[in-house]
Amino acid sequence: MRALSSPDFLDLWERGYGLHPVDKGLLALSAALPAASHEGLADWPLGRRNRALVALRCSCFGPQLKAWTSCKGCGEKLEFELDGEAWGASSDRVEPIVVKGRSFRPPTSRDLARAAGETDPGLAIRRLLTGCLMDAADSLEELSEDDLREIGERMAAADPLAETRLTLHCPECGERWEESLDIVSFFWAEIEARAKRALFEVHTLAAAYGWSEREILSLSEPRRALYLERILA
């Protein structure tokens, strides 16, 4: 996996502006894995995709993921940390599941993209699961809502990193609840912040020294930081 540089962050942020989160995740992986095709990455199970994104995020920003949320009970701001290295330590191998005689593979980014166009949550789930059927002759007809729920639960158990659920506790009011952590949105927010910081550095150094964007971004981050200290002192 290739390390990302300041020009990479700028390029990702610019190319990913306005894209759906599914496409942003694939764009980030494509930058770090240039030998992999976009189509191939889109067919990775979501757990494998998320594991790779966590590894890439850790290589860019360190192993600790710091985040915050608001308590569902009292609104208190809660900060928490996750160990990215431990989070992404499980295996990439995911076995298909069988429910009511139908075999399902784990969902991929391509499946999420197909289902994202549905405004009705129930139809979105059915479209997602239909795409995961391993036999084109099979369908979801005659399956009850309980059957669909079982399929979802078994998929989650087979590929636990496809969705990360956090159990949170508020020390102020005692409220406990679960919340999803979307690694794509989390990582992309950091990519955007790093890109905007690079743009600030380019603007400041260009105004002070007359250097081009290419020349400024070719400097190492420590050297850019030292020049900025001199300017802002």
Descriptors:
two-stranded antiparallel ribbon; two-stranded antiparallel sheet; alpha+beta; single chain; 233 residues; 2 domains
Task: Explain this structure.
The protein has two domains: 6-65 and 81-90 and 184-232, no CATH class; 97-158, no CATH class. The mean pLDDT is 92. The radius of gyration is 21 Å and the shape is globular. The longest helix is centred in the last third of the chain and has 27 residues, at 183-209. A hairpin with a 6-residue loop joins strand 5 and strand 6 (176-181). The protein has helices spanning 6-16, 21-32, 38-42, 46-61, 84-87, 109-115, 121-131, 145-158, 183-209, 213-218, 221-232, and strands at residues 64-70, 77-83, 97-99, 102-104, 164-169, 176-181. The protein is α+β, with helices and mostly antiparallel strands. The relative contact order is 0.15. Helix 2 (21-32) packs across helix 4 (46-61) and helix 4 packs parallel to helix 9. The strands form three sheets. A two-stranded antiparallel ribbon has the order 1-2.
Radius of gyration: 21 Å
Largest sheet entry = 2 strands, antiparallel
Helix count, per DSSP?
Answer: 11
Structural class: alpha+beta
Provide the helix percentage. 40-55%
What distance lies between the first and last C-alpha atoms, to the nearest angstrom?
Answer: 38 Å
Task: State the shape.
Answer: globular
Poorly predicted regions: none
Q: Tell me what portion of residues adopts beta-strand conformation.
A: 5-15%
Number of domains: 2
Number of strands: 6
Provide the residue-averaged pLDDT: 92
- Strand order, biggest sheet? 1-2
> What pattern of helices and strands is seen along the backbone?
HHHHEEHEEHHHEEHHH
